[in-house]
Write a sequence for this structure.
């Protein structure tokens, strides 16, 4: 359809409640073989929301969710939304420095965190306003025996560092306490902000994209419109694999919420780097769909056991986050007999903007706009340009964010006065209305679908006492699309690359850590002293 009705649900909570009732007896989520049905998740999330309310959290307060893909995540998410709280999705692998920025920027009052990451929280807790801490273990909801085995194995591996945090409540205890309380109904308007989804802004500092009920509901309806042609003739519930992390907007919207709208079973993968575990779930279930990024599909293609999987139920695989390589798409089609459908989106657009339609999937193209969405190519002055010409991609639609939290200037630079979202990506539209991303306007580096902004890397490296100046760029990588390389001038020549690598690993999440370091006598600059990253990129070409 050309358009969707984004008013069909007034809020995300209305959507969750209706789908929980409609599909109450179906399997909703699975993790490491443990399954939960929609009704059970709905009941437990009511209890969790009631517990949060009993702790004094008020509608509009921010709560961080910091865990891998576990059954606890949808329960916590739905409970928080029912309690009127604003979700702050947080990467569990964040360093203390990154956690502190996100928690203070959004003024987070509470957190649900896997105990594996509590030691880092301990380091920054005093600098935040977090008063309510709910911890969980990887095995907490997997059953008594399996849960104990999983947790013991993690402790033996040293995956749970020791920590001391005040007034900690276990997740299951919060659920038990929640049974004692009644959760009142809260005003929940279409324009109410329900998620602060962090992403890079034009300065490279992480910004909280404010996503409203209407933004997210609209994107769910847009995804549903895309899925319907793929669902024709299918009478059994979908089973979709979710290896991408739920704290990332792609899995958050396209897996967790959109698949709920289909009454699908979402199979949660706690560790997406464990390719064997993904193949195990392929063999456990009759998988109909999977979402991923180029690196994940490539890793599956190259695993010797993947070709042995029964793909007779697989209908579609969806790729986003970073460019899909032609050889990866072709290998996937040869092995599985199905296509990888590439799309395009941004955190600021909840996230889906375009996708390839069934019957006309084009490798190398990001497809056509989803319903109720306008996409155009503009020149540097913001004027639309002709078909086939390169320019910046702009987007307008009901899924475009309200703005960046407490960042009016960033918002003004990203969303035009007449509502067009500046993506920072350079694209081309062909005569059929299909789009292709050919470059990026910004200096942003894309590592396995994650945005890495050079400014942040440079700020961190420049704090090292032996570093004089630094510049960060992205360089090609077969594995992850791009990786970070830094060029460094030194104050003290005793600094080694090994020491600088170790420093970066302490300060930055893994995908942001430079994979290459080059010591250089002088960085190229303009007449006014601005570092020319472009010149450094030309050196690497």
């Amino acid at each position: 359809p050309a358009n969707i009705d984004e008013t069909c649900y007034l809020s995300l909570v209305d959507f969750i409640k209706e789908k929980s009732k409609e599909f109450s007896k179906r399997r909703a989520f699975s993790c490491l073989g443990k399954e939960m049905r929609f009704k059970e998740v709905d009941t437990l999330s009511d209890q969790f929301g009631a517990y949060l309310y009993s702790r004094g959290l008020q509608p509009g307060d921010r709560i961080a969710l910091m865990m891998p893909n576990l059954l606890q995540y949808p329960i916590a998410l739905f409970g928080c939304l029912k309690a009127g709280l604003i979700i702050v999705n947080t990467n569990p692998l964040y360093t203390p420095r990154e956690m502190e920025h996100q928690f203070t920027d959004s003024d987070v009052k509470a957190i649900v965190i896997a105990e594996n990451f509590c030691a880092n929280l301990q380091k920054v807790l005093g600098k935040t306003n977090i008063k309510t801490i709910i911890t969980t273990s990887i095995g907490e909801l997997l059953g008594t025996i399996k849960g104990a085995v999983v947790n013991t194995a993690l402790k033996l591996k040293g995956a749970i560092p020791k920590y001391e945090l005040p007034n900690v409540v276990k997740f299951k205890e919060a659920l038990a306490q929640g049974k004692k309380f009644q959760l009142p109904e809260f005003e929940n308007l279409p324009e109410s902000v329900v998620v602060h989804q962090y992403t890079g802004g034009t300065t490279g500092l992480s910004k909280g994209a404010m996503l409203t009920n209407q933004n997210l509901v609209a994107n769910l309806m847009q995804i549903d419109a895309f899925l319907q042609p793929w669902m024709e003739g299918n009478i059994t519930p979908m089973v979709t694999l979710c290896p991408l992390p739920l704290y990332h907007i792609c899995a958050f919207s396209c897996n967790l919420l959109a698949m709920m709208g289909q009454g699908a079973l979402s199979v949660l993968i706690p560790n997406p780097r464990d390719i064997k575990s993904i193949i195990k779930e392929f063999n456990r279930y009759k998988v109909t769909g999977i979402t991923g990024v180029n690196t994940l599909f490539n890793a599956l293609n190259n695993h010797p056991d993947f070709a042995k999987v029964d793909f007779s139920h697989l209908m579609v695989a969806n790729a986003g986050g970073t460019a899909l390589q032609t050889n990866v798409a072709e290998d996937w089609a040869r092995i599985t007999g199905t296509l990888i459908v590439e799309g395009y989106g941004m955190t600021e657009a909840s996230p889906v903007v375009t996708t390839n339609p069934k019957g006309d999937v084009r490798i190398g193209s990001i497809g056509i706009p989803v319903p109720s969405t306008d996409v155009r190519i503009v020149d540097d002055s913001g004027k639309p340009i002709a078909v086939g010409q390169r320019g910046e991609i702009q987007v307008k639609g009901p899924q475009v964010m309200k703005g960046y939290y407490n960042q009016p200037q960033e918002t003004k630079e990203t969303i035009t006065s007449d509502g067009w979202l500046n993506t920072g990506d350079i694209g081309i539209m062909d005569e059929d209305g299909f789009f292709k991303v050919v470059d990026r306007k910004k200096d942003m580096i894309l590592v396995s679908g994650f945005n890495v902004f050079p400014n942040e890397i440079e700020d961190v490296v420049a704090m090292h006492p032996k570093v004089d100046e630094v510049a960060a760029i992205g360089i090609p990588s077969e594995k992850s699309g791009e990786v970070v390389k830094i060029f460094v001038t030194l104050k003290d020549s005793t600094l080694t690359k090994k020491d600088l690598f170790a420093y970066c690993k302490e300060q930055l999440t893994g995908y942001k850590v430079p994979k290459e370091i080059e010591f250089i006598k002088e960085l190229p600059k303009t007449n006014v002293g601005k570092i020319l990253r472009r010149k450094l990129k030309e050196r690497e070409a």
Q: What stands out?
A: The mean pLDDT is 94.
